[in-house]
């Protein structure tokens, strides 16, 4: 990734360069040098999509099986691709080629739809951002546990009771939270471009490691069944109700993996013209979604072939006994490094919103507006500037996400919920509504009915996935004791 897109976050990647309600350009033209092209935009799309969500795809396919699983993945890619084409025409308004620029997603919603839609978009975006920080905290904790558990198993092979290596998430969630307390004091998102680049490299590293390890295991025999986990009393079967809940939760996991629409406008804002930005963005989206779909199909299907219906929720946790333990540890370290940076790209817009609101609410307060400076080691290294409110607000947010992660450390259920509640509004609803209004689609025309049908079906899918994920959280909570260290 280049520094030109500060929010270059894998998968999820759903963060925005500047998503404050009133902090965007408001549709006004900025004197910004835009040098991006189809190649750079394609790279941004690929990097934005491929991330921690890829780790849940083998488990998701296990809920469906060989017949429906890959088809569901493909359908999500088609819906994401089509909705992204509609959204690309909303970068400029009212004319897609020559209108005024909308430099952020929320600018586009504000200028094309306006009114309450802007607030609905803001709620969806910020819900996505906050949910992602919680999901990333949980995922990093799982990776730390995987490293620690693998180390324990390798050094205690003589133990007759493997449960002696059961390790709780709590201490590692606190470690990750402590690291975020430090990184969260970085002034703003424009100063963490280097963290995004490191995060992007890490995401590709652990994704390819997971694919390679799965392929190596699948060579010895392909696992899985036509329709996934069976229903019945058998040791590898579940009740019909649990089968349904698993399918619904898997839908949310896949939605989380494919979601990148909330930063599409920001990516498009890096493109030079001519040709028109919407033309270049559509080409970039075609390339990006195609590459991502092939990669997701490979990871999901090969992972399922390796583990079958016993596929773990997080693919890499299934290799605790692998002889290539050093490679598994490397992949988990890559996940942790990626999520340290990923957390910040999601959190910084939330920080910015809170600080903007406080400065508007209390413009004369010293606690909010008086800036203090502390020299970091030497003046050459830098000067740390902060306000009392900024220090308190950012610390409070990190504590909140860490506590929620301690109470609900359930990887698949949490990312499924985040994917479910944001997929419909950000990936489908707003692109359909903005495109329909800007293009003058007649209300009861065939095209309008088709677009609204697509939106309604995706709404039902998101709603079902949300219900399944909530049930998964409730079910897991019954068997889990929070705050175990």
From TrEMBL:
GO terms for cellular component: membrane. It holds the Pfam family Aa_trans. One of its GO terms (biological process) is amino acid transmembrane transport. The keyword Transmembrane helix applies. GO terms for molecular function: amino acid transmembrane transporter activity. InterPro entries: AA_transpt_TM. It comes from the Eukaryota. It is found in: Membrane. Its main location: membrane. The chain crosses the membrane at residues 38-59, 71-91, 192-213, 244-265, 286-306, 326-346, 391-408, 414-432, 453-474. Residues 35-474 form the Amino acid transporter transmembrane domain. Keywords: Amino-acid transport, Membrane, Transmembrane, Transmembrane helix, Transport. This is Amino acid transporter transmembrane domain-containing protein. The lineage of its organism: Eukaryota, Viridiplantae, Streptophyta, Embryophyta, Tracheophyta.
């Amino acid at each position: 990734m280049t520094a030109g897109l500060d929010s270059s976050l894998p998968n999820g990647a759903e963060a925005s360069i500047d998503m404050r309600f009133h902090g965007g350009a408001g549709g006004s033209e900025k004197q910004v040098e835009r040098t991006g092209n189809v190649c750079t935009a394609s790279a941004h799309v690929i990097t934005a999509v491929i991330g921690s969500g890829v780790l849940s795809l083998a488990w998701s396919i296990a809920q469906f099986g060989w017949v429906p699983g890959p088809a569901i993945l493909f359908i999500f890619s088609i819906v994401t691709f089509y909705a992204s084409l509609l959204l690309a025409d909303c970068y400029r308004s009212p004319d897609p080629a020559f209108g005024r620029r909308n430099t952020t997603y929320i600018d586009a919603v504000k200028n094309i739809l306006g009114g309450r839609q802007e607030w609905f978009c803001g709620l969806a975006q910020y819900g996505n951002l906050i949910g992602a920080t919680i999901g990333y905290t949980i995922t990093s904790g799982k990776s730390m546990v995987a490293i620690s558990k693998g180390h324990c198993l390798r050094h205690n092979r003589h133990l007759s009771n493997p449960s002696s290596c059961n390790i709780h998430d709590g201490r590692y969630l606190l470690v990750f939270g402590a690291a975020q307390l430090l990184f969260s004091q970085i002034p703003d998102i424009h100063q963490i471009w280097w963290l995004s680049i490191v995060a992007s490299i890490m995401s590709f590293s652990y994704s390819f490691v997971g694919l390679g390890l799965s392929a190596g295991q699948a060579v010895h025999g392909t696992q899985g069944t036509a329709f996934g986990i069976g229903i019945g009393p058998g040791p590898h079967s579940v009740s019909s109700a649990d089968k349904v809940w698993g399918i619904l939760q898997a839908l949310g996991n896949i939605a989380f993996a494919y979601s990148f629409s909330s930063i599409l406008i920001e990516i498009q804002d890096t493109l030079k013209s001519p040709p028109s930005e919407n033309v270049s963005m559509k080409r970039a989206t075609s390339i990006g979604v195609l590459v991502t779909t092939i990669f997701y199909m490979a990871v999901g299907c090969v992972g399922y072939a390796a583990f079958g219906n016993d596929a773990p929720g997080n693919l890499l946790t299934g290799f605790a006994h692998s002889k290539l333990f050093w490679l598994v540890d490397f992949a988990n370290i890559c996940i942790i490094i990626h999520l340290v940076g990923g957390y910040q790209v999601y959190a910084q817009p939330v920080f910015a919103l809170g600080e903007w609101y406080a400065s508007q609410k209390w413009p004369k307060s010293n606690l909010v507006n008086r800036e203090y400076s502390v020299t970091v080691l030497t003046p050459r290294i830098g000067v740390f500037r902060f306000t009392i409110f900024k220090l308190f607000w950012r610390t409070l947010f990190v504590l909140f996400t860490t506590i929620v992660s301690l109470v609900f450390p359930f990887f698949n259920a949490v990312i499924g919920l985040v994917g479910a509640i944001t997929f419909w509004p950000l990936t489908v609803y707003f692109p359909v509504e903005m495109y329909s209004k800007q293009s003058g689609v007649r209300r009861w025309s065939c095209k309008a009915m088709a677009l609204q049908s697509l939106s309604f079906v995706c709404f039902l899918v998101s709603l079902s996935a949300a219900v399944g994920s909530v049930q998964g959280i409730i079910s897991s909570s019954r068997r889990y004791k929070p705050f175990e260290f």
